[in-house]
Amino acid sequence: MSRPPPSPIFTLRGAGGPLNTLHFSCRGGDTPLLFSGSGKGAVHIWNLNTRRPEKIVEGHSGSSVIWVSTLQSTDTLISQGRDMQVCLWDLSEGRSEVVDSVWTGSVGFCQCSLLETSPGTFLLAFAGQQTEEIKIIELPCKISVCTLVPDAKLGMVMCIKLWQPVSGPGPLLLAGYEDGSLLLWDVSQRSKLSHAKAHPEPVMCLTWDTDRLKGVSGSSEKKLASWMMDTHKNLQLQDCVTLVNPGVSQLCIREDGKLLASAGWDHRVRVFGWKKLRPLAVLQYHTDMVLSVAFCDHQDPRQRLLAAGSKDQRISLWSLYNEGASAEPLSSGRI
């Protein structure tokens, strides 16, 4: 018999704006942290033990923060705003200083993607000033690596994912475009490897499993599209999941590869078994669009929470730990 869907174990309030982006950092000690970026330009650093903001930083002139991440440890924060700036923050020893910034020139909502290539060295990919271009630079030196522009008119870059394959030379990049296309790029060769039309509408979000070489994307329609990379580095469309209501803001795969979460325009979070895209639960709490989802990277599986940020200015935290989660549905509700 199916169990009822869970309720949030707690919620975080006081962000003061829509929650566009979330990022966990739980490996830097005993204090699990959740970083959130709001539509009012603030980055809140939440202490999940006290369930209160440990620090609030503002560096985008009140412009919406659309992406946050951390470099190696929680001492270095990186944030992206609609002011066309990516800011690097020094948070060590109680500081909250912008120590460097990158001007993107992009007025869109495409979130940056970060990849560590060696200790202390990172690649940063972001949508450029021109509609279809993606720029990649090396941090902290800010040397330009390449600019990727498709040879066909695909519209605006909507979402990107930079990743390093286990076998093979340089990094690869997945990009979703306004016309519903997915492109796979070889960063080292500055060349396109594969093109697949995943959606009739703009690709709003995508995520990628580097172990299974499988990804999933969402759009404004009632569908999640899954796809994989074959041995020849071609993108192959796979199964689709039909949703009850249209619109997906973000997708996230749990680190253990068992669960996929989606942020829905219909105020709901949906949880799937990632291996077969089997619906497991519909999480209902928010009163407006869910804009972001993130899984905790805590070493203890029982502490690996799911966070969801909404336009209603609240963050909900959910505990989905369950040894049988990949085989046993959490909810009988329609996905």
Automatic annotation (TrEMBL):
One Pfam family in the UniProt entry: WD40
The keyword NADP is annotated on this UniProt entry: no
Keyword tags: Repeat, WD repeat
Which InterPro entries does the protein's record reference?
WD40/YVTN_repeat-like_dom_sf (IPR015943), WD40_repeat_dom_sf (IPR036322), WD40_rpt (IPR001680)
Keyword Repeat listed? The answer is yes
WD repeats at which positions?
283-328
Protein name, UniProt field: Guanine nucleotide binding protein (G protein), beta polypeptide 1-like
